[in-house]
Amino acid sequence: SQTIHQWPATLVQPVGSPLSLECTVEGTSNPNLYWYRQAAGRGLQLLFYSVGIGQISSEVPQNLSASRPQDRQFILSSKKLLLSDSGFYLCAWSVPLSSYNSPLHFGNGTRLTVT
Amino acid sequence: DQQVKQNSPSLSVQEGRISILNCDYTNSMFDYFLWYKKYPAEGPTFLISISSIKDKNEDGRFTVFLNKSAKHLSLHIVPSQPGDSAVYFCAAGGAGNTGKLIFGQGTTLQVKP
Fold first, then answer.
1. How many domains is chain B partitioned into structurally?
2. Which among A22, B10, B74, B110 is least buried, having the fewest CB atoms inside 10 angstroms?
3. Cα–Cα distance between B48 and B50 in angstroms, integer?
4. Strand A44-52 to A105-106 pairing
5. Containing domain of residue A36, as a range?
6. pLDDT > 80? residue A20
7. What span, in angstroms and rounded, lies between the C-alpha atoms of A63 and A8?
8. Looking at CA atoms only, how far is residue B90 from chain A in angstroms?
9. Are B45 and A46 within 8 A, CB to CB?
10. Where residue A108 sits, what CATH number does that domain have?
11. Which residue has the higher pLDDT, B95 or B18?
12. SS3 (DSSP) at B81
């Protein structure tokens, strides 16, 4: 069966420090991968998605970047964190031709607090 | 521009009664719609979905209704149970292989014993 691992679960970082969140998927090949963020009191906002190694699409302009160095590895990064980067970050995967009966599957998320 | 909206931030119902969660969307190109359930400090889990060619899909206590002319969908939970207390997100997806979903803001459901 497929599993998705996301770490760390919680993170407290000072403003201006770098960030690296990692996500890996097991049990499937060539998945679509996604990073979402849930800010306090808000819904889930799509940040990045990837349909293959090295292919990254950004949905919103921001202080963050994403990379996919391997088929089942997705990394969210920042060179200098801002206070507004605080939130709950979720990695997700889907099969390449996702549809209503093959939805996104989420990891357990990382709670990031920028102080 | 928010393409998927859940206008009720919270809902409280009594155990055994029906819970109705609503969602509106603006983009008529969406191909399918989904509901996710989320507990605190966890990722959302898939609950039920519906293709845009249908108007109803049922799975046990959960039924999703789609009204394309009104660009509106709803999730019915009957009977509601205390374990259903969570945040519910509706989401919409379109054609293509990106698989990306657009989520609403979420509705917090509280089912009282």
1. 1
2. B10
3. 7
4. unpaired
5. 3-114
6. yes
7. 20
8. 10
9. no
10. 2.60.40.10
11. B18
12. coil
Q: Which CATH number does the domain housing residue B62 bear?
A: 2.60.40.10
A90 token code pair: 């979720």
| Distance from C-alpha of B56 to C-alpha of B53, rounded to nearest angstrom | 9
Residue bearing tokens 């603006």? B26
Tokens of B110: 């509280």
Contact A8/A23 with Cβ under 8 angstroms? no
The token duo for B105 is 């803001």
pLDDT in tens, A59-114: 887 889 999 999 999 999 999 999 999 999 999 999 876 666 678 899 999 999 99
The Cβ of residue B51 has, within 10 Å, a number of other Cβ atoms equal to: 14
Here the tokens at position A49 are 């998605």
Best mutation target, B49, B55, B97, B107, to test chain A (most A CBs within 10 A): B97
For B38-64, write each residue's pLDDT tens digit. Answer: 998 889 999 999 999 999 999 999 999
**What span, in angstroms and rounded, lies between the C-alpha atoms of B64 and B42?**
23
Give chain A positions within 8 Å (CB) of B93.
Answer: 98-100
Note the residue count of chain A.
115
* pLDDT tens figures, B12-33: 999 999 999 999 999 888 889 9
Given an 8 Å threshold on Cβ–Cβ distance, is B43 in contact with A107?
yes
